[in-house]
Amino acid sequence: MSFLTPELLAQLIDAHAAALELFAAQWSKASADVVQEAFVELARQPKRPDNIAAWLYRVVRHRAYDDRRAESRRRRRETVAAAENEPWFRPTSSGQIVPQDATEALRELPDELREVVVARIWCGLTFEQIGEITEMSAATVFRRHREALSLLRSRLGIACLDQEKTSNV
What we know:
disordered C terminus, mainly alpha
């Protein structure tokens, strides 16, 4: 018998499904399916994981990786170009960042850097939680996050606030 009650499952879906879908979208075009499979797998667990959220992110990550490999094999076999993912940025009224440029810059990041940025900014995970999911130390996650943001700023031509302050002095 599973520890997962319908009420707990509903709470977990409400709390985590949207962020998990975005997290999975880094690797999989079927992110909703990946997330659904993770919740089904959670329901099959005989024992409650110590940290359910981290467990879900880890399962989604592995399933999304598997899905990406399968998609790559399908593309090679069928030689059909994959459709674009939905943009990760919405247009802003201020026009500071062009969403297409930001999306492209984010896609161009190495997987290990992009994963940390998406998990931190869009999923709202702490460096410790990301470290648990990716099996890295929080310090390594922090360094990757800082490196990713620096690359994004450089590619988008955005100066760091600290750099602006020192150049104005």
